[in-house]
Design goal:
The complex is a heterodimer of chains A (about 250) and B (about 550). With about 250 residues, chain A is mainly α. Chain A contains seven helices and four strands; from the N terminus they run ββααααββααα. Chain B has about 550 residues and is mainly α. A two-stranded antiparallel ribbon of chain B has the order 1-2. The relative contact order of chain B is 0.13.
């Protein structure tokens, strides 16, 4: 009973292993609740795309300013590892879609299994990413170890005194062996984009684990699968952003 | 607009004191954990109100310092921090969140005939993100302040040794607070309208909030990533905005204004919405050009994404881009003028009640005409090259931000105050305060137009003695303006303690927000309303409700 004397709408559980869902008090029907949440979530996904949009704009801007640098920069990345990660994410999008479908048909064990497979996909992606980052760090091409290094830039030569810049300028050379301008910019953009994307992968995996907890308790079923659906959408977006990152960073050169 | 159900059902038989959202539960936790849009609105009102007073205090300090040509109070470095604090507090903690957060939260679900916003938990999260942003901003002051101006232009924001990352994080959180409020309002407007409340029966405040929300959702994420990049730049020296490392600071300006120009309309569109409501209610006349006003809000929202380059006429852009940006800037004047003319036409031959909300509205109409037209002047390329970075620009955007938006906020606050709290403030004091604010405001900023056109640059801690008369006049105006605001705060707070009871329908409004008991019960409507008539149809007004005291 809500305050004004109206009964709340309750969606019955489809079986003994499930629990019923009570529609929030300010909605009249389950459909209204479902559509409101879904519209809100699509809007949220739009903000995510715009957030990455700034990074894509920066990528294209500097690609245009320093095309040679970006060409050589992209060649430093291992496209095979990138391709493996792309396949892993594509597969995980399929398992997530199957997880959502299983929730819609009240198949508890299948939902759990597909969600777990998706988390495994996320883990494989992050492990491969870790080894890629590690290799770049060893070559001195990585920004994160240089937090708070303080920086002195010789404005005459436009070269930095950080070990990072020195290493970058040793690696980033054109066909004649001459250093390319601003080699660090490629790696700055590479790291910023993939790190923020990686953070989204971790958040997505966390959300899927949270959904699995609800599935195990029987909260999601044919009558109410909204959270599974929304987390699924989030996971597909994470996948989609990577599908743009992979060719731009690894293959365009 | 009428409802089929009896409208003033206050359940008097149950108890002497009707239960409403303010007294249905009590204690700190009942407020801190509330999901009720009205209580969240009140918390926003207190929060943004305090931020406004703090920002106003910084403004008075700036004006006091400029009393003398060589500066009266601060070192140059301190002056930079004080004007940055004024700008950052006013923009990010007050002007952007104030109207949607407080009045929007309070009124939007009432106007739609809904029990709450669509996503109440997200609404509370928005408020706490705002609060965290405010706390971080205060922390940034304690950590040495920040002196970049509210625009955080690179490369200075990358080099200064102040707490830029902390304030950046604060703005990141405030940005997401704003995004979630907008998202919530869009979903609420789409999904929770009462039966019969078609899109063209929605009050214009709802239309304005809807257009604002689109901007909040679509523009703010770009600010988020820009701030993150500045933080990365400061922490890891990635070089994206740093010219010494091959980066381009103009790219920062593009990113920043891609958000911050639409942000100007995030600030001003809700103000337009309030004025649209108030000219109709206090002239007791349907709005002239209802659909035109509704569509002009959307038109402004769309064009606002295409004009950011007019902030960068002197930053280095292609000449053709400047032509386009200048033309599009003029173009914004069309939907804006449609609004201004429609408001004036609404008042024309109306039954005008010159009460305090209407006085603030009239003050808005005058000030906004000046603020808008000086914007057209600044949008012309050749004139802007002369006026860029002078006090003319400062005066222009204060006519819009303070004179228009803050005054519309005050107008809305006075209009819905009896609805929110069930008490009336002292009308005489309110009228005096409105007059003092109007006079003080113009006295502050007209001298700034003049000295700006003569070349007085903005943001300078000192100036040549020729400008002293203007600066002194401006400072005196600011003191008058400040005392007007102080008077307003005084009588509004006093009304909560000693104010007489408000009427059920204090002003004779006919939108759904005036069809609930005053103050509204927890779930807004005793019975779900059904809308059967057109919006602003004053023939349906129940005059008795305007003379029935609450309770």
């Amino acid at each position: 009973m809500s305050q004004d004397g109206h009964h709340s709408v309750v969606i019955p559980a489809p079986g003994p292993e499930f629990v019923p869902h009570t529609v929030a008090h300010h909605f009249d029907t389950p459909v209204q609740e479902f559509q409101a949440a879904k519209l809100g979530f699509w809007l949220f996904l739009a903000t995510e795309i715009l957030l990455f949009g700034g990074l894509f704009a920066a990528y294209f801007y500097y690609h245009d300013l320093y095309p040679e640098t970006f060409k050589v920069g992209g060649q430093q990345l291992d496209w095979k590892l990138g391709a493996i990660n792309t396949s892993v994410l594509l597969l995980s999008s399929w398992t997530m879609a199957m997880g959502v479908r299983s929730a819609q048909t009240s198949q508890k064990r299948k939902t759990l299994m597909f969600c777990a497979l998706t988390v495994v996909g996320a883990a494989i992606f992050m492990v491969i990413k870790f080894f890629e980052y590690k290799a770049k760090t060893e070559h001195g091409l990585f920004v994160f170890p240089h937090m708070f290094d303080g920086y002195q830039v010789d404005t005459a030569t436009m070269t930095g005194s950080l070990p990072w810049f020195t290493d970058v300028h040793n690696v980033m050379v054109d066909a004649t062996g001459a250093p390319l301008p601003h080699g660090h910019l490629f790696f700055a953009i590479y790291v910023t984009m993939t790190a923020i994307h990686g953070l989204h992968v971790i958040i997505g995996a966390g959300l899927i684990l949270w959904v699995m907890k609800g599935v195990a308790k029987g909260r999601f079923h044919a009558g109410y699968y909204l959270p599974v659906d929304l987390v699924g959408l989030y996971w597909h977006l994470v996948d989609l952003i990577w599908i743009f990152l992979f060719p731009l960073l690894y293959l365009v050169p | 607009m009428t409802t089929q159900a009896p409208v003033l059902d206050t359940n008097k038989s149950h108890s002497e004191q009707p239960k409403h959202y303010l007294n249905c539960s009590s204690g700190f936790w009942s407020w801190a954990s509330t999901l009720d849009h009205k209580r969240i609105g009140i918390m926003y009102l207190i929060g943004t109100g305090l931020a406004f007073l703090a920002g106003g205090l910084f403004a008075l300090l700036v004006r006091l310092h400029l009393w003398q040509p060589d500066g009266m109070l601060f070192s140059n470095d301190q002056y930079n921090q004080i004007f940055t604090l004024h700008g950052a507090f006013m923009v990010f903690l007050f002007v952007i969140p104030a109207i949607p957060g407080s009045l929007g939260n309070m009124v939007l679900p009432l106007m739609l005939g809904a029990k709450d916003v669509a996503l109440p938990r997200l609404n509370l999260l928005s408020f706490y993100l705002w609060l965290s942003g405010a706390v971080l901003a205060a922390l940034a002051i304690a950590m040495g302040g920040f002196d970049t101006g509210w625009t955080f232009y690179a490369p200075y924001s990358l080099y200064t040794n102040k707490a830029v990352v902390t304030i950046g994080l604060a703005i990141f959180m405030l940005g997401f607070s704003s995004i979630f409020t907008g998202l919530n309002f869009i979903v609420t407007t789409h999904k929770l309208r009462a039966p019969g409340l078609t899109w063209f029966r929605m009050p214009l405040f709802v239309w304005a909030l809807y257009a604002t929300s689109l901007l909040q959702v679509l523009a703010t994420p770009v600010l988020g990533i820009t701030i993150l990049l500045v933080a990365f730049e400061r922490l890891y020296n990635i070089g994206i905005f740093d010219p010494r490392l091959g980066g381009d600071p103009v790219l920062f300006e593009h990113f920043f204004w891609f958000y911050s120009h639409p942000a100007v309309y995030i600030m001003v569109l809700p103000a337009f919405g309030i004025i649209s409501e108030l000219v109709s209610v206090h002239s007791r006349k349907p709005l002239f050009g209802y659909k035109l006003i509704a569509f002009s809000s959307l038109a402004i929202a769309i064009i606002s994404f295409l004009v950011w380059g007019h902030h960068m006429f002197t930053s280095g852009q292609s000449t053709y881009a400047m032509f386009a940006f200048s033309f599009l800037t003029f173009f914004v004047a069309i939907p804006t003028a449609i609004k201004e003319f429609s408001w004036v036409a609404t008042i024309w031959k109306g039954s005008i009640a010159l009460n305090s909300p209407m006085l603030y509205t009239l003050a808005f109409l005058i000030i906004f005409a000046i603020g808008g037209l000086t914007g057209v002047i600044l949008g012309s390329l050749n004139v802007d090259l002369h006026l860029h970075d002078t006090y003319f620009v400062v005066a222009h955007f204060h006519y819009v931000m303070m004179g228009s938006i803050a005054l519309a906020f005050f107008a809305g606050l006075h209009h819905w105050w009896p609805k929110m709290f069930g008490v009336m403030y002292n009308e005489t004091l309110a009228k005096i305060a409105c007059l003092v604010i109007f006079v003080g405001f113009n006295a502050t900023f007209i001298p700034q137009f003049i000295m700006g056109s003569q070349g007085m640059p903005r943001r300078y801690a000192t100036y040549v003695p020729e400008f002293q008369p203007y600066h002194s006049a401006s400072t005196m105006g600011a003191m008058v303006l400040g005392s007007g605001v102080a008077l307003m705060v005084f009588y509004l707070v006093a009304s909560l303690l000693t104010g007489k009871k408000a009427m059920q329908n204090q002003w004779g409004g006919v939108t759904l927000d005036w069809h609930t008991p005053t103050p509204p019960p927890l779930e807004n409507f005793a019975h779900a309303p059904k809308v059967t008539t057109e919006v602003y149809d004053y023939s349906t007004l129940d005059l008795k409700s305007t003379q029935t005291p609450i309770g």
